[in-house]
Amino acid sequence: xxxxAEKGPARSDATAQLLLLLARDTLSxxxxxxxxxxxxxxxxxxELVILATHNASLPxxxxxxxxxxxxxxxxxxxxxxxxxxxxxxxxALKLTAGMTAFHRDCIxxxxxxxxxxxxxxxxxxxxxxxxxxSCVDVDILVAERDYAKVARLxxxxxxxxxxxxxxxxxxxxxxxxxxAIRHSDVISLFSKDNVHIELHRYIEKSxxxxxxxxILNETHSMQVGDQTVQTLSTAWHFVYITYHxxxxxxxxLHWVADVDALSTHPTFDRQEVLKIATEVGLKPTVEAAIExxxxxxxxxxxxxxxxxxxxxIFLDAxxxxxxxxxxxxxxSWDAMFLFDFGDQWQFDADRxxxxxxxxxxxxxxxxVYQYIAKRRARPLEWLYYLExxxxxxxxFKKRLSAQ
Length: 403
Fold this sequence. Notes:
Blueprint: H1 14-22, H2 29-39, H3 45-54, H4 58-68, H5 75-107, E1 114-117, H6 119-126, E2 138-142, H7 144-156, E3 160-164, E4 169-170, H8 174-183, E5 186-190, E6 196-200, H9 212-217, E7 220-224, E8 227-231, H10 234-247, H11 254-263, H12 270-280, H13 283-295, H14 302-305, H15 310-320, H16 327-332, H17 352-362, H18 368-373, H19 382-402
Parallel strand pairs: 2-6
Antiparallel strand pairs: 1-2, 3-4, 3-5, 5-6, 7-8
Helix pairs in contact: 1-2, 4-5, 5-7, 10-11, 10-12, 11-13, 12-13, 13-15
C-alpha cells in the first residue's frame, strides 16, 4: 500500500487537529472536551480562520467557537467570522433556491427520473443546519431517457449553457447545443440569478463505476422548500462521496463534515454500505473513508496511523491540503489511476482490467473540447471516434514500450 503522493509536509499541530475536529455539524461531549483542550493551544487564531475559509469549513468552525467561546479567541476575530459565515450562509440559501427553481421549471414539468447529489441536497438530507454546509453548485443526475428533454427545457427557460469552461464561453448556436446534449457527460449551466447547475449523465469522472439505472431506482424522496425531490439513498450517497472526495484528495474540510454527517445519520447502515461498495469494486475506498472519519475525531492516534493505514493515508492527504490552494491535489494528478483513483489500492484488484477497459471505451466518445477545436456537422462526427481510437492506441503502444 502506498500513500497518495509524497509531496508537501503533512501538518498535524494543534491548529490542524482543531480544524479537522470542528469540521462537522455537531460535537459530542467527548469531542467538545477535546476541542476545548486544543483551543488552549492555539497561538494564531487569524491563521486558523484563514485556513477554515480556504477549506470551506468556516461556518462549522464559527458555530462551534461561538458556542464554546475560548478565552484566548479575540472578540474581533469572532465578529469577523460571523460576518463571513453570514455571507456563506446567504450563498448556500441562494443555491437552495436555485435548486428548487430548477426542479420546478425543468425537472417536474417533464417528470424526469433524477437524483440530486452532494451540495445542497446532501446538506438538506443529512445536516441539522443545511446552510452551514458550503456549496458552489447544484449537481443532479438525470436518466438518459430524460436528459435531452431536461436540457432542452432548461435552455428554453433561459439557462445559459457553458460551452468551454476554460474560456468561459457559452452556447449560442443550435449545432453547439445539440452536440453538448448528445455527447457531454455533464453540462454546466447558469440560471439568470447566476446559480451554477451541473446536469450529469454519470456520476463518476471517466471510469464507469456506478450503475445509474439502479441508483435512480433506489432514490430517497425529500422535501426542499416547496418541491419534492429525489436524492441518492444514504448508502449510495456515502459510497459516491467517498469516491468523489478521495478523488480530490480530501482537499476541502467540508468533505470531512460530509462523511461524519452521513456515517452518524440514523439511516446509515454500515453493512449495506459495504455491500454496495463491494458490488462496485470500491470496498477499500469506503473502508478507508470510514476509518478516516473516525480518525479526524481522535488526533491522539494520528502519530501511529498517519500515512500507515488506508484511513491514515486519507488523513495524510487532508492534512497536506490544509493550505486550501489545491497545490497538493494538482501535484497528485499525474500519479492517479485513470484519473479516478489516487492509487490502485483504492479498488478491488480484480477490477483493474475491467475499469481500464470501460474507461477506454468511454474515452472513445467525442468531447466538447474536440468539438471546440474542430467543429464538425453531425454526419461527420464519426471522425471524432476515429481520432479518439488513434489516440488511445498510441497511448497503449507507449505504455507497452515503456514496459
